[in-house]
Design a protein that fits this description.
about 250 residues, mainly alpha, Multidrug-efflux Transporter Regulator, Chain: A, Domain 2, three-stranded antiparallel beta sheet, two-stranded antiparallel sheet, elongated
């Protein structure tokens, strides 16, 4: 970690003064030091003295913790920053890009009238089924729609003849397998960061690679899903597995 310049009397603080100034408890300051996230103080006699760089670092640690980073990750990050390997601004820009939404599906609150309008033509009890499935969450005279996109898909599937419980089970299966797949893909891309993924190794290069991956990855998922579903259904037909399907007359 970078060595700090010698402090003057005017800009030095004892650990208690630093704690009062930054509102970070002294025990927490010592903890950050023990983990290597905070620079060591200057020792005069038997007293540790801290300076403006420590104030700035504590503020940065607080910001990074608010972003969900653990102390080990913070230590590694600030070490790279101190050694000139990484720009904080570039890293923050990359983090913002990585945490931005990949799907436009923010929760929304709709009035009961609006919900009933969307459910027009659905069988009795359908609203209650959506509530029990936690798709809709009652909030007084309104409902929180946790995933407007999922609700839209469920309604379309029901119109196509797919019951709600069947569609919800399919959604759970899809989420389970896609979650595992996306974790493996993200690990794969990060393992090749700067060496096959974002080839120049800069934050800007990685940001650009992930930005291009956003639409193309979703398109690739759609294509692979279509190809695999076609392959499976064809195998069902060829094996005779679909021979037992009977068509019921429409009422």
């Amino acid at each position: 970690m970078k060595r700090l310049p010698e402090l003057s009397e005017e800009e030095s603080y004892t650990i208690d003064e630093l704690a009062a100034l930054t509102r970070v408890p002294s025990r927490t300051i010592r903890f950050y030091q023990s983990k290597g996230a905070l620079q060591a103080p200057e020792i005069r006699g038997r007293v540790a003295h801290y300076g403006p760089a420590h104030v700035e670092r504590l503020a940065l640690i607080g910001q990074l913790k608010d972003r969900g980073l653990r102390i080990k990750a913070i230590r590694d990050l600030v070490t790279r920053i101190d050694e000139g390997e990484l720009s904080l601004e570039a890293w923050l820009g990359l983090q913002e890009r990585l945490q931005s939404a990949w799907a436009d599906d923010s929760p929304e609150v709709l009035s009961r009238e609006s919900i009933e309008k969307r459910l027009d033509g659905k069988p009795p009890g359908f609203l209650g089924d959506l509530v029990r499935a936690n798709v809709l969450v009652p909030q007084g005279e309104a409902y929180l729609v946790k995933s407007p996109g999922l609700l839209r898909v469920l309604l379309h599937l029901h119109d196509a003849g797919i019951d709600l419980d069947v569609a919800l089970k399919a959604a759970d299966m899809l989420r389970k397998h896609v979650a595992k797949m996306t974790r493996e893909l993200a690990d794969h891309f990060l393992a090749h960061a700067g060496d096959g993924f974002g080839r120049d190794g800069t934050s800007e290069g990685l940001e650009s690679a992930f930005e291009e991956l956003r639409p193309l990855g979703l398109e690739a998922l759609r294509l692979v899903f279509g190809q695999e579903m076609q392959r499976v259904l064809r195998s069902y037909v060829e094996s005779g597995r679909t021979a037992g399907i009977t068509r019921k007359p429409r009422k």
